[in-house]
Every structure is written in C-alpha cells, then in structure tokens.
Amino acid sequence: MTDNPYGVQTTYRQNPIVLNLKYFEDDEKRDSILNEFSSFNWENIDKEFDVAKEFHKNALNSTNSDIEQFPRSRVYSRMGYSSADLDRSRVAGLEAIGRNELCILTLAGGQASRLGATCPKGFFPLKLGYDEELKNCLFYLQALQIAALQKVANGKILWLVMTSKSTDTETRNLLPQVAKLAGLDDDQLMFFVQPEIPCFDENGRFLTGYGHILTAPNGNGGIYEAITPLLPDLRQRGIKYFHVYCVDNILVRVGDPFFIGTCINNKADCAAKTVEKYDPHEKIGIFCIDRRSPSDDVIYNFKHKNSLFNDCRVKVIEYSEITHEQAEERDPFTDKLMFRDGNIANHFFVIEFLEYAKYFTIPYHIAEKNIKVYDPRLKDTVVKGIKLERFIFDAFVHSKNFLIYEVSRDDEFAPLKNSDAVSHADCPTSCIAALEKLTSKWEKEHGCDLSKEELFKVFL
Predict the structure, then answer these.
(1) Which residues neighbour 376 within 8 Å (Cβ) at sequence distance 6 or greater?
(2) Distance CA 416, CA 126 (A)
(3) Among 75, 279, 332, 441, which one is least packed by beta carbons within 10 Å?
(4) Predicted confidence (pLDDT) per residue in 96-139, tens digit
(5) Nearest-CA neighbor of 258 among 91, 430, 45?
(6) Which residues of the chain have pLDDT under 70?
(7) pLDDT of residue 454
(8) Are 317 and 288 in contact (CB under 8 A)?
(9) Superkingdom of this entry's organism (predicted)?
C-alpha cells in the first residue's frame, strides 16, 4: 500500500488520483472523497479490474469454437405443450404458490441511462390509461399480476425487490403505494440493495464527481452476493422457489405458474425463459453449451450434487462474441438457427442454488461508457470510462439440472430500454403497442373487452 499526505492507505495504481485531490478548492468535498475512498478495499478492486480486463481481452479474441447448441431435450416450449402438459405444469405451479413457497424477485437496480429517466425504470410514466398517476407504470402492472395470481392460487406471495444506491430510496418510498393500489399488503414487500463498484478510467483508476467517488451497480449478477444474508430468513418463511426477472419487460408474466410448474416437475435447480432468435444478427444473447474443461469450482460442484444434466456447461454469449458463420449456422433438422435460444433475463431458481452461489466465482465484464466526471483542474468533463458488471447468467454453469422454457416473443417480451427520441425499438411507444397487441389478441380469444386487472387473469 502507498502512503500519501492525507493518511489514507491506497495502491500504486490509485495513488496518483488521491494525490490529485490537492487541486480541490473545497476541503469538505475533498475530505468526503477521502472518507469514501477509505471504505473500499483497493487491493481487491485493482485485482478485479485486471481480471476483468483479461477476461474482456480473451472474449474479444475468442472464436467460441467449443460451443454447441443447447440440448433440445432440455428445452420445453410453451407453444409445443399439449393441453395435458400445460395442465400438469399449471397445477404444480399453483400448488407451490398456494403453499407460499414462491418468491417473486424483481431486478430493479439499473440506472436507466439509455431511457433518459429521472426516476427508477419501474416507475417511468407510461400511457396505460389510468387517471391515477402511480398506476401508469411497470411496477403497477406487475403488482396487479401478483394480486391476481395469489387469489387464483389461494396463497400469499412475497415480493422481493433488488435496488441499487441510485434507485433504492425512491423505490422504497413509492412501491408500497403502488402495491397497495393493486391490493397487496405492506408485509409482502422486501427490499435489498445490490453492491456498488467504482467507475474507472481506461487505466483502472477511480473517477470522481464533485465531492464523491463515481460508482455504479455491479450488474444483475450482483444478486448472488446481495441476497445471501436474506436466505436464512427466506428459508425459515418456507420459500423454496424464486422467479427472477428484470423490471423493464412490460409483457413479463410474473410468477407464471406454467413456467414454475415446468421447472418443479422436471426438478430444475435453475432455468431460463427464452424467445426464439430469428434474425442471425439480432443483438440478443444466446444460450449454448461450452465444451471446454470446466474450472475447478465447477468440477467440485458437479461431483457433490446429483445431476440430471451431466457434462455440460451452460453458457450465455453475447451477439458480439460469436462469429458470422456461427450466427448464421442452421439446424439441419429444422432449418432454424442453430443458436436460437435468446436470453430475456427471466429466470427460475431453487433456494439451494442461491445458497450455494456464495461459493461461485462470478467474473466481471467490462462496459465502456462515456462518463461525466469532475476534475478539479478542468471542472466538469466527459471521459471514456469503464464500468464493471457481473451478469446473472454467469452462475448458470454451476447448475446441474438446467432447463430452458421457450415462450412467444409477442406474448412475453417487450423491454423498455430506450427513449422515444433515441429509438423506435424497445421504447415507451413500442412497449405500449406490444401490450395493446396482446390485449387485442386475448380479447378476440375470449370474446370480450378486458381491463388491465382482468387481462392478467387470462393466462392463469
């Protein structure tokens, strides 16, 4: 560790930035940064940054020649299910919910920078047609589904929400109000905050704002570290299963009993909903199997757990990480894309998987961003910076009984990512259009008009 005039312990890499704090004219702001700086373990952070850089370099240079199509025997298609299969799944899901064994877990820590939102994404105002302002948001649609589901199942569902430093206060203040409007009780809500990690320049040195270190949520993979302290209490409450999804999907089927039941009936410890990828070059991650030798911790896990799904490494790779030829490769039996299982961040876990996750090694990925910083010599400026993110799917390699549940894109996936001004896709307008299209479809099937409250009872 390197000494400096301020008496804080730092590292060789970070010390130049600490020394530059002498240019701050405001002693209080400088002291605030130094106090915050002392709360981090910079030796560990420097190591994490170096590992992430190496991981990023290897990913860019990899041809992923050792990947194979995800086994079709472990893909369960909602569209291909018989009525009897659907009934069995539904019954198993509803019975678990009726026994209060299911926890809904919403990932709501993202900063929504592309959306240009001034509020957490779950509260972003959408044109849903309600007079009451708080009802015109994603969280209200999801609360309605939980209320409908527990009524059908005759149970009570615990709703767990993962926030971040930037979304926590507003989410804790507003979500109880939204939940109450949907008919939920206050004691059904629990919150926990995902970890933050500093933002860096290209050399791995921390960046500062005016009086604080710039940090960002450490990605949806932060769930494993963040939820660990809560698991003993959740187990005591009788929770066995978790439905985990990102808050930004307007078509998400919260606690979908068909999905939950399929996972239970097939003894999955971890699972994912997917949509079929049609365009070879669509910007969506895909599930596959990595046949390279697994790491030591994965081998240990395989040896100490019963398995239905041996000798496979579940992997999600981004669209940018496969070759042009791999992206366009076709399945000779179906003529569909070979790598077509699109990841939509919608997952199932058993509590044992999450309890064991504290032993997993989850890598950090590098995200290059333009970041507004405060330099005391230049004042406010924008630099090419780096944020480190963990991804929830990097733990799936440890699953022994992983399955995929394929669903219709039109029925279940319409994410809110961009502002209307930036893009015509994945924006408020496209989300509302997707919901209206689904509503119209169900109204035709049922021969009547459906309110939002009635809409979410249809698929149960």
Answers:
(1) 20, 21, 23, 24, 25
(2) 10
(3) 332
(4) 999 999 999 999 998 777 888 889 999 999 999 999 999 999 99
(5) 91
(6) 1-3, 63, 293-312, 452-453
(7) 72
(8) yes
(9) Eukaryota
Give the whole-angstrom CA distance, residue 394 versus residue 387.
17
Residue that has been written with the tokens 């579940």 in this structure: 314
Which residues are CB-contacts of 334 (< 8 A; sequence separation ≥ 6)?
none
Q: Are 408 and 78 in contact (CB under 8 A)?
A: yes
> 349: which strand partners?
242, 270
Q: Return the domain boundaries, the chain.
A: 40-458
C-alpha 232/C-alpha 12 separation (Å) is 40
Residue 366's identity, in one-letter code, is: I
Handedness of CA 61, 63, 69, 71 (dihedral sign): negative
What distance lies between CA 310 and its chain's CA centroid?
A: 26
pTM check: above 0.85: yes
Dihedral of alpha carbons 269, 270, 275, 276, sign: negative
Q: At 450, list the tokens.
A: 């459906």
pLDDT, tens only, 308-353: 455 568 999 988 788 889 999 999 999 999 999 999 999 999 999 9
Specify the pairing of strand 270-276 against strand 402-406: parallel
Q: Which CATH class is domain 40-458?
A: alpha beta
At residue 224, φ and ψ (nearest 5 deg) are: -70, -45
Distance CA 344, CA 334 (A): 23
Closest alpha carbon to 189 in 254, 93, 103, 99: 103
